[in-house]
Design brief:
The protein is mainly α. 80% of the residues lie in helices and 0% in strands. The protein is rod-shaped, with a radius of gyration of 47 Å. Residues 17-93 form a coiled coil.
Length: 231
């Protein structure tokens, strides 16, 4: 009788222990699954954080590039405005120095000014100075109100002074916009040499060759009259 109760108690204890172990295994499985889910979520969070950090870095870089491009655009617009003002002032100066009835020649000179700025790119067969362009154009001068062809040599000295002023202003502009830029420095020196050459050419062209030839002819006639006096 005592042994039967002992066996029943032992069986109940074993059954309870088995059920407890089963519940413990289920808890362990749940805990393991929860840990795996937590690790998976942590990995996803890290990936999202890295992507967000990269996006923020790219956004900052794009903002910096945008500011730099905007600054460069503003500087370029200011330089273009200053250059336009200088060219307009040069045209007004040339208009003020031109003759009253030389509108056609002024239009031709306005067309020749861009060729002067691009003079370093022009082929060697073309005239390399403003004096050369004006000399070519002087043979096709427009007629004034009196029917006489306009001669550029009459106001070449004034135009040379204007070219000197334009070259100096453009050189100062290049120096202010970028003193370390070698191309602008060479262009400024080239324009200064052109201005000096134009001034020298204008000074040389101040004497009219026709008057010199006429004076030489009259002198020759006087000498001939002295060699062969009338009897």
């Amino acid at each position: 009788m005592y042994s039967a109760f002992l066996i029943q108690g032992l069986a109940a204890h074993l059954s309870a222990k088995r059920s407890a172990l089963e519940r413990l295994d289920r808890y362990r499985l749940r805990l393991r699954k929860a840990k795996e889910d937590l690790h998976h979520k942590e990995d996803k969070r890290r990936v999202v954080a890295d992507a967000l950090e990269k996006a923020n870095a790219e956004n900052k870089s794009l903002i910096g590039e945008n500011k730099s491009l905007r600054t460069d655009l503003e500087v370029a617009n200011k330089r273009a405005a200053k250059r336009e003002c200088q060219l307009t002032a040069a045209e007004e100066k040339i208009k003020s120095l031109g003759p009253p009835n030389g509108n056609a020649n002024l239009l031709r000179l306005r067309k020749l000014l861009p060729k002067l700025w691009r003079q370093r790119r022009s082929p060697p067969s073309k005239p390399a100075t403003l004096f050369g362009w004006l000399s070519m154009s002087s043979g096709h001068g427009a007629l004034g109100d009196d029917g006489m062809a306009f001669d550029f040599s009459e106001w070449m000295q004034d135009v040379a002074g204007s070219v000197v002023e334009v070259a100096g202003a453009y050189g100062d502009f290049c120096a202010r916009s970028g003193g370390k830029d070698g191309v602008k420095t060479r262009l400024r020196e080239h324009l200064e040499r052109i201005a000096e050459a134009e001034a020298a050419a204008a000074a040389d062209a101040g004497e009219d060759p026709k008057s010199s030839a006429a004076a030489a002819g009259r002198e020759g006639e006087g000498n001939e009259a002295q060699d062969h006096p009338k009897v």
